[in-house]
Amino acid sequence: MENCCLQVIFTLNVLTDTFNKPLIHLFRESSNSSEVKLICRNSVSYSRADWTLSRSTTSVTLTSSDKVKSDRFSSPPFNGYDFPLHVSPVTFEDSGTFECFYDRQRFGMIKLTTIRVSESGGPPGGQPVVLRCEVSEVSGDPVTLAWMRMEGSRGLLVKQDVLTESHPNRTLSVTLPSLRSNQLHWQCAVFTEGMLRATASLTLTLPTQTTMSSMTGMGTETVVRGVITMAATLGILGLLGFYCRRPNGTQTQRQKEEPAQLEETNV
């Protein structure tokens, strides 16, 4: 009996342009080392391209094909097809909707939500340390923030919260009563629809203090020096006292002679 095989052929179409695509939602950490590259591409040549950033009711042009900037928002020379936007570093205020236009026709739309982490409090005096993770915006799908204490590459969940549009704030905080050496590495994770979207790392630093070994050594040395100094002082004082109390030869002889004279006079 011959085996029968069913052959199924799938056709995969790869689209190389960003025209008329659904809104893309990205999350990025705001830090000096964070960056994002937004792609805008078309298969037909155009003469002009622009990138804009919209926040609520305002919109600003970031780069254009005839005036390419070289600051945090930069694009390479426009070749008629590709006009990517590079944002580096990403700041918390970069949250908004980025739109790409070719000849005033929109070819791409990307929403960027930023997150940032910070600390407050702590030493001196062993004060509590407060860790904060903030998301720039919550709209549409709920956003889950989670604080994890890192042990190498493994994260231990400490606290999490689900934020919605009606949530009173966009911050998740963790309070450490006192800072210890196993609480220095933290990470805030952002989830939507059960998927990890971005992380933001925070490294704490213990206050600079003299180590116990060096303190012990310094204390021992100080005690030894003190004992030597005290012994030397007591020795000198003892010698002085001895010489002050010791009678000299003349006094001794006179003391011996005076009683003899008295006895002779009485007789």
Average pLDDT confidence is: 79
Shape type? globular
Structural class: alpha+beta
Report the biggest beta sheet as strand number plus sense, adding barrel if it closes: 7 strands, mixed
Question: Radius of gyration from the CA trace?
Answer: 41 Å
* E-strand count: 14
Characterize the structure shown.
The chain crosses the membrane at residues 223-244. InterPro entries: Ig-like_dom, Ig-like_dom_sf, Ig-like_fold. Keywords: Membrane, Transmembrane, Transmembrane helix. This is Ig-like domain-containing protein. Residues 22-100, 126-205 form the Ig-like domain. The protein is of the alpha+beta class and 267 residues long. Helices cover 19% and strands 38% of the residues. The strands form three sheets. Strands 1, 3, 4, 7, 8, 9 and 12 form a seven-stranded mixed β-sheet that branches. It has a four-stranded antiparallel β-sheet with strand order 11-10-13-14, with no helix packed on it. Strands 2-6-5 form a three-stranded antiparallel β-sheet, with no helix packed on it. The protein is globular and about 65 Å long. It starts with 23 loop residues before the first strand and ends with a helix. The model is unreliable at 210-234, 239-246 and 249-267 (pLDDT under 50).
